[in-house]
Amino acid sequence: MIVTQKEEIVKDDILKEAQKLFQQFGLKKTTMEDIARSMGKGKSTLYYYYCSKEEIFDAVISKEMTEVFNEAKDAAEKAHSAEDKLRVFTITKIKALQKKSNLYRVVRGEMQENNRCMKHVHTEYDQQEVKLVKNILSFGIKTGEFSSAIKKDLDILPSVVVSSLRGLEFDLFAGNKYPKLETRIDSIVSIMVKGIKK
Asked: When comparing pLDDT for 105 and 148, which is higher?
C-alpha cells in the first residue's frame, strides 16, 4: 500500500494526540473514541490506519524510541574517542528519555501490568543498541584505545554493556535520581571502560 503525504500527516496527528492521552490516562483508560475526539475526527479515521488502541500505543512508543536512539546515536558519532562515544551515547540517551519521562513511566506501568506490551519493540531497539555499542568497541580496538583481547568477547560484551545501561536507566527513572546525572554516568562509564582499556 502506497502511503500519501496527506495520510502520513493524519497518522502523525493520530500519534501526537494519542501520546498526550496515553501520558495523561495510560493505555487502559484511553479509548479510540477519546483519541478521535481529541483530533476532531470520527473513529472510522483511526480504524482506517490502526486496528486498535494497542497498535496506536505501540506506534507511539516505537516513534519515541526511534527519536531517542537516533539522538543518542548522532551524538556518539560526533565524539572522537571510543570512551567519549560510550559516555555521550549514554548521557544523551538518558537525557532524551528524561524529557519523555511521563510516557516512560506510563510504558513501565503498562509493561508491568501487561507483559505482551512492547516486548517486540524493546527487542528491536536492544538489537540496534547492541550493534552500535559493538561498533564503538570495535572502533576502540582499532584505534588502540581498548585492548585487542576483548575482540574474542565482541559477541557478548556489547549485550552486557547495553544491559548495564538499561539497568542504570531503570534505576534513574524508578528512583527519580536525576540530580548529578552526568557525574553518575561518567563514573559508571569509567568503570566499564577501565576493564577494556589497554
From this structure: 148
Count of CB atoms situated within 10 Å of the CB of 85:
24
Q: How many Cβ atoms from other residues are within 10 Å of residue 99's Cβ?
A: 13
Neighbouring-strand partners of residue 146: 197
DSSP string, the chain: -PPPHHHHHHHHHHHHHHHHHHHHHHHHH--HHHHHHHHTS-HHHHHHH-SSHHHHHHHHHHHHHHHHHHHHHHHHHH-SSHHHHHHHHHHHHHHHHHHTHHHHHHHHHHHHH-TTTTHHHHHHHHHHHHHHHHHHHHHHHHTTSB-GGGGGGTTTHHHHHHHHHHHHHHHHHHTT--TTHHHHHHHHHHHHHHTTB-
Q: Give the mean pLDDT of 50-79.
A: 90
pLDDT of residue 181: 65
Residue 23: per-residue pLDDT = 82
pLDDT of the residue at 154: 93
pTM above 0.85, yes or no: no
